[in-house]
Amino acid sequence: MTQFMLCVPRSVPVADDVRLRSIESDPWLIPASKALLDRPELAEVPYLTDGASIDDLFKAAHEVVLNGGDFSVTHLSSVLRQMTGRCSALVIWWAGDWADLPVVNSTEDLLRAVDEQLRTPVGDVYIRWESL
To answer: Model confidence over 29-39: pLDDT tens digits?
Structure first.
């Protein structure tokens, strides 16, 4: 299941229930940020204020869509919509597999891609979103 997310914030907070921590707290993410982001020094790691992980958001949304539910009403969809309004870039991937992520530039394309990828049995999401 999707495990990691990095963002380059334009404003803080990036979502109502999401806070950021320095990428320096998670040094294994530094190579990914350098490879994926135009400004890796600004990369931050999002986390949920209620103690859940980003992974938990993806797991819950995966469960919803696999049971025939609507992705647009999930907590993940809400968080991603907020983040695209408050970040200049987002990258999402699983494990060490962050090379060659597909790139999208609109919120709608991001949400559509996440929805489609969650509908697979494994539900891993690999995507890079950059605002234009």
So the answer is: 999 999 999 99
